[in-house]
Design goal:
The protein contains three helices and 27 strands. By secondary structure, the chain is mainly β. The strands form seven sheets. A four-stranded antiparallel beta sheet has the order 1-27-26-25, with no helix packed on it. The protein is globular.
Length: 435
């Protein structure tokens, strides 16, 4: 890795993500009062990956001009896209991702171009992010278009950009600070699912030594399913299937499904591929492990074999203390120190898409108004008894949200009902306080 020095600072734990929207439920009062503090509309633009600052006073996010793709592009006239292409020709980066920092009044207090996955420092001065090196306007977010992306640190006061790390190949993404603020972790990404990228390793930047070191090794040169040698007597079909993709999943030692902070630990959910004849790009099954990167390198828990395509696939959510919620068919609470299961925080919850507040008081579930449609609202439930507390504002479509570290605020992104037209696409960031 190529690296360079930077002015280092201390850091406190960043927060796990949580989805939320709010409108009063018909039928009476609840024990939750959500007060809307901010609506930040973006006509003709997307809003991505909002995150609160550690002190909860700012929100950092990615915004970019909207370029319809897939189903959104259906039915639009050729003239619409010709106008976009003409604009891209004159300004090749007009729809590239921009990073903005907002205060709770909606004022933009910092901006840098171009990048993904931003996080704010505890003093609200620095933005840590993955730089989009190549122009990506009008292109999909594939491994090829993201290739070369590196980790950067932007000083909102001096406007200086510092290089933290650049890839030897592939691209780097999703940086986060170590629990004690002594280093920076980031993901190493490659094409793992056809043209789509995925995380195949983790690295850590050490500012004291001004270099990056592997946290989880990235690559080994082993085919997923070795082809049988000539004359082995194995069926020709097996020989054909095993030889189609030269760089299958187990050319990497693992796929990293999640990585982040949990209390004073940096942890990762890692899948070791189980090769099988006929695997294309990704293995069908993985031996899952929850591992600690620091303060101690160890395997916390081994939930065993999981299907990559299964809807009940394993994932984790960080909560207060040395604990994490893990999903193995249902959400369960575990100690990150011992790996032992802790008492359930509430009734059995088998909905994998539930997202919990950092204090474990509530969880939200994305729901649809009509079967077969995309989620258009969220429902808030109380963890202790599973009671439905509040149905949240219906929109044309809902995306992502995040809680502040102390769970006193949440922010969410969605398309309002009057902004759903592809030609007049609009998105909103909404911030609520919770009492």
């Amino acid at each position: 890795m190529k690296t360079s020095s930077w002015r280092f600072f201390s850091f406190v734990q960043l927060v796990a993500v949580l989805l939320a929207f709010s409108w009063p439920q018909a039928g009476g009062q609840t024990d939750l009062t959500a007060k809307r503090e901010l609506v930040w509309p973006q006509a003709g633009r997307e809003i991505r990956t909002p995150a609160f600052s550690p002190d909860g006073k700012f929100v950092v996010l990615v915004t970019k001009n909207y370029w319809p793709d897939g189903e959104d592009a259906e039915g639009l006239p050729d003239s619409f896209f010709r106008a976009l292409e003409a604009r891209a020709k004159s300004d090749p980066r007009f729809a590239d991702p921009e990073i903005k920092v907002l205060d709770l009044t909606g004022k933009e207090v910092c901006e840098t171009r171009y990048g993904w996955s931003p996080q704010l420092s505890p003093d609200d001065r620095y933005v840590l992010f993955s730089e989009q090196v190549k122009p990506i306007t009008g292109l999909r977010e594939l491994a090829e278009t993201m290739a070369g992306n590196g980790i950067r640190l932007f000083d909102c006061e001096s406007k200086q950009l510092t290089r933290i790390a650049d890839p030897e190949h592939g691209y780097l993404d999703a940086p986060f600070f170590a629990p004690d603020g002594s280093s920076i972790y980031y993901t190493e990404n490659e094409a793992v699912n056809g043209a789509f990228g995925g995380v195949v390793g983790l690295a850590r930047f050490d500012p004291q030594q001004n270099r990056s070191v592997a946290a989880l090794n990235k690559r080994i040169n082993v085919p997923a399913v070795p082809c049988p040698p000539p004359g082995s007597g194995q069926p020709e079909r097996e020989a054909f299937l095993c030889s189609q993709i030269p760089n299958l999943t187990s050319s990497f030692p693992q796929i990293v499904f999640q990585a982040g902070l949990a209390g004073k630990a940096a942890i990762a959910l890692v899948g070791l591929p189980v090769p099988a004849v006929g695997d294309m790009y990704l293995a069908k099954n993985y031996d899952m492990r929850l591992v600690s990167l620091e303060p101690e390198e160890k395997t916390i828990l081994n939930p065993g074999l999981r299907s990559f395509e299964s809807e009940d696939g394993t994932r984790f959510q960080s909560v207060g203390g040395a604990r994490a919620l893990l999903f193995f068919g249902q959400w369960k609470l575990y100690s990150l120190e011992t790996g032992n299961q802790l008492p359930d925080p509430g009734p059995k919850n088998a909905n994998r898409e539930s997202l919990y507040s950092p204090d474990l008081r509530y969880y939200l579930v994305a729901e649809t108004s009509k079967p077969g449609q995309d989620p258009d609202h969220f429902v808030l439930y109380r963890t202790a008894d599973g009671k439905r507390v509040e149905s949240l504002r219906r929109m044309a479509r809902v995306f992502e949200a995040v809680w502040s570290p102390e769970a006193s605020r949440f922010a969410f992104v969605g398309v309002p009902l009057d902004g759903a037209s592809a030609r007049h696409h609009a998105e909103e960031l909404t911030v609520y306080s919770v009492r």
